[in-house]
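Quick board copy: two proteins, each given as sequence then tokens.
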Amino acid sequence: MELVEVDGQDAEVFERFYNLRDAVRREAEFPSGLGLEEARVLMADQHSDMRADGLALVDGDQWLGIAWLDWWLQENTHLVEVEIAVAAAYRRTGVGSRLLEAVIERATQDGRRLLSGMILGDAETGESAGTAFAAKHGFVRKLVELHQVLELPLSEERLADLDQPVDGYEIVQWREHTPDEWVEQFAEALSAMSVDVPTGELDQEPARWTPERLREAEARRLKQGRFCHTTVAVDKDGQLAAYTQMGGGTGDPGRLYQWDTFVRPEHRGRRLGLAVKVPNFRSLQAGLDRPAVLHTWNAITNAPMIAVNVHLGFRPVAQRTDWELEI
């Protein structure tokens, strides 16, 4: 057996790496994750905020398992995010442990002191073979998130029932590029969301968004073949009070994501979360030509947002647990 480094530059090597990772993800009833080109661009290109690479454990022509690594460059430079996936035929043979050893060695050489990873588990217990592996190797569970899904499209009748505009706010929408007049306020809102979102006991720093970082992220998303629908609520003073984003990738248009939804603290209690979500559903569904599944994750402690999702029709399908290992 040998370890192969993967950087996204060799298309054939990366496709084998990706296919193994994706096959493991698709064992879940409702799989999620980046498409092939989305993932390749993330790994192959240079980014100011992060870099990604990977390792594969191979035996001749057999790919036994892989590790995907995200190295953060602006904040959270003390950690590496890792995802380990082992082909079904080679589980419980030491493949995962060998990959973890290699990841720890690389992280230590880079001066990182913490590994972080997300693992899917049962909707009620949160447990899985992945959580058992993490616990066995000394990882500590730090955050539990509920994975909910919603089948689309929603009928116009259903959307009309849900639609509850809030007096005193204007709804503004855009697609792939934040309008220049909103870029500063939107970057500030993204930073506030990063601070506000429940993170349990994770040893992680919130992201610091700037207009430049936002523009870079938008350009990267377009190159990946991803699309995004944004809806914001603006108060009478022209301040961005709430936003939501949904989207997906052109490589798998049936797999969509509810990304951030955020309401500034001083505007909460007015149902603004629902007020921005419903018009965003209309925007998203206008481009659908087939049934789709919309995925979202929220910390189980985030009862208000989970309640909004339940009201919309989302249902729980899994838990995603976040683990950390001091190295």
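And the next:
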Amino acid sequence: MFSHIKDLQFEAKPDGPDAAFARRLQEILGGKWGEMTVANQYLYQGWNCRLPGKYKDLLLDVGTEEMGHVEMIATMITRLLENAPLSLQEAADDNPMVAAIYGGSNPAHFIHGGGGALPTDSNGVPWNAAFITASGNLMADFQLNVTAEAQGRLQVARLFNMTDDPGVKQMLRFLLARDTMHQNMWMAAIEQLKQDGLEEMPVPDAFTDSQEFTKEYSYTYLDFSPGQDAAEGRWASGPTPDGKSEFTYDHSPRAHAPEPMLAPGDPRLYGTNPGMAQGVVNKVKSKVT
């Protein structure tokens, strides 16, 4: 259960209004890699976690923190929209710069949100719960969480270079710092899973009843590109990260099965079947003769 604290984790106050940047800031609120995604992702991973103790606490702690980041960004967006012009005429009466900012604003901020933040990305597309993953496998989830934090840090860093507002930049610095911690934290959690003997790879790397598959497919890099540049990569030779084998390199991958020949479909489904093509050929031959 959550208990709302009125104070923010960090100040979210711009030095001035900027409706156009408020629109851009929506991406790290309601975009695919935004705070709404990671907050819900970590919380659901925590609620679904079957291991009581440190792993469940980790997920729920950081999910709760990310919910605080949602509030911070929503507050910043709302403040960026304060005193923003509501019409082009109103903007033009001020100065050309304000008019340009008006042109880059999101009308939905005012029509739908009444001058407040929305659960959408920077294009106004609603946030989608399909963005979150909670698989029940901690190794698989933690690896995705590293990716989520990397993408979030990337977007925050890009937004940092899109504004000159000192107040906005200060909040973005804080978010970038916390995302740096979270990315390192998930990588440490992956190491902890290995140390605790809970996970090696997310799901078994191969089934133990077939050593042939393990040898031929599990550790061979298949190069489908011209040249052999990929052979220089760490993934083409040397010991594998799981410590179980050596990478091998195959520059001429071969097919392991013949061309598929599909049986005719059920005629009640009105598909185009192989026999129909032969029927067309026969009709053409009969007309020619």
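Board note added afterward: The longest strand covers residues 246-250.
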